[in-house]
């Protein structure tokens, strides 16, 4: 065990060198106590096997704290945020989590996601059409492709009317800006009161949308979830509200950053970029490798020790917070040979980019489809696609929850 109260985790320089920081922690011990930017101490697990064991252990580690160490208090959340995220499926444990997940999965099946592939392809082609038609041959891959692709897919999937898409994007960005590991400012320079006012509008909008789908269901996912039934139970309006918010948080920023991270990784590994261009059938394998190499979910949801316990011989007191550093686990040399090398043909690639256990990312199949379509579409239709800036100057998103580039200027 190592204690690193003053370890820099969130400065721009530390964000760029995060893998080296995690490698240092991992080499010292499987678990380290680190002081977060909020001032709260947290145990960070950085080795693969210990992360796997922790993520699957709902007996010793709970998503909601049953008790906190003396002097530690959880920050109070505004009512609107609680309605959207408090007690959502990401914040509860089995068996209640199992019930909610079973209900949503009856509508959001892998078969449903695969049927979306032609629509995802059409959206990607439309975005590239617009880029190719522009006079300017340089563009920001994040702003002009990586953001609008999952935003449009998610909006269509949820049945968000097209005239509401700009507001929907703002609301999604505001939810992502609530990352407690970041001092990131809200979009468009909004102050905290303005942020909360917009989030309250989002709650009202979703309430009305859900009621509309119950009254007049369509072929969208919200309509499917209103009708979903398991063991005679259906989702309540409150559960649906939280589920939509969770899908927005988990399905937009993650895929946006995955796309940006994938292109950055390929630009830095020209041999792998050439291999993928020559063999587009490797797209599925390439996405899996880049999820391991540059996954967009950096850390797990925090969990709390339900009892005095230990991890790899390190004592953990009841109530202490623990997180699995997925980005560190996926570069553990004990699990992945040559972990810092990008290899799109890598076999035995069971990464933790989507987590593990009951809270494994519900949207993983959709993220995979979007990633595969994005790669093949960009590389096929823009065969000369290349970075337009020094890649060392690319800025990383603040905070630890999501890992991704803020922008990525490219040319073709």
From TrEMBL:
InterPro entries: Cyt_P450, Cyt_P450_B, Cyt_P450_CS, Cyt_P450_sf
Pfam families, alphabetized: p450
Superkingdom of origin: Bacteria
Molecular function as annotated in GO: heme binding; iron ion binding; monooxygenase activity; oxidoreductase activity, acting on paired donors, with incorporation or reduction of molecular oxygen
Top enzyme class: oxidoreductase
Keyword Signal listed: no
Enzyme Commission code: 1.14.-.-
Keywords: Heme, Iron, Metal-binding, Monooxygenase, Oxidoreductase
Similarity comment: family membership: Belongs to the cytochrome P450 family.
Record-given protein name: Cytochrome P450 family protein
């Amino acid at each position: 065990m190592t204690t690193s109260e003053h370890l820099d985790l969130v400065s721009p320089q530390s964000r760029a060198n995060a893998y080296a920081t995690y490698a240092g922690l991992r080499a010292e011990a499987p678990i380290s106590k680190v002081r977060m930017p909020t001032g709260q101490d947290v145990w960070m697990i950085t080795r693969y096997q210990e992360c796997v064991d922790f993520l699957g252990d709902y007996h010793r580690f709970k998503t909601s704290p049953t008790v906190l160490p003396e002097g530690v208090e959880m920050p109070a959340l505004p009512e609107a945020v609680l309605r959207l995220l408090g007690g959502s499926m990401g914040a509860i444990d089995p068996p209640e989590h199992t019930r909610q997940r079973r209900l949503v999965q009856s509508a959001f099946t892998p078969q449903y996601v695969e049927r979306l592939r032609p629509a995802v392809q059409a959206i990607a082609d439309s975005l590239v059409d617009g880029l190719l038609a522009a006079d300017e041959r340089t563009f920001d891959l994040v702003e002009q492709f990586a953001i609008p692709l999952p935003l449009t897919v998610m909006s269509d999937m949820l049945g968000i009317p097209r005239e509401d898409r700009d507001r929907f994007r703002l609301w999604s960005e505001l939810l992502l800006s609530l990352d407690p590991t970041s001092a990131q400012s809200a979009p468009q320079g909004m102050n905290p009161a303005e942020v909360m006012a917009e989030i309250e509008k989002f709650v009202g909008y979703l309430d009305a949308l859900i009621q509309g789908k119950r009254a007049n269901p369509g072929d969208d996912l919200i309509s499917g979830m209103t009708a979903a039934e398991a063991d005679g139970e259906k989702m309540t309006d409150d559960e649906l509200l939280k589920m939509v918010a969770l899908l927005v948080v988990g399905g937009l920023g993650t895929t946006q950053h995955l796309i940006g991270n994938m292109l950055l990784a390929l630009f830095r590994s020209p041999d792998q970029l050439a291999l993928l261009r020559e063999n587009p059938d490797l797209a599925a394998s390439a996405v899996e490798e880049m999820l391991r190499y540059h996954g967009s979910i950096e850390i797990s949801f925090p969990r709390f020790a339900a009892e005095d316990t230990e991890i790899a011989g390190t004592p953990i007191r009841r109530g202490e917070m623990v997180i699995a550093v997925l980005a560190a686990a996926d570069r553990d040399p004990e699990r992945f040979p040559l972990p810092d090398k990008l290899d799109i043909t890598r076999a035995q690639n069971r990464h933790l980019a989507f987590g593990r256990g009951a809270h494994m990312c519900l949207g993983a199949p959709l993220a995979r489809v979007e990633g595969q379509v994005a790669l093949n579409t960009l590389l096929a239709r823009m065969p000369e696609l290349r970075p337009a800036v020094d890649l060392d100057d690319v800025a990383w998103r603040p905070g630890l929850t999501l890992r991704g580039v803020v922008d990525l200027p490219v040319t073709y």
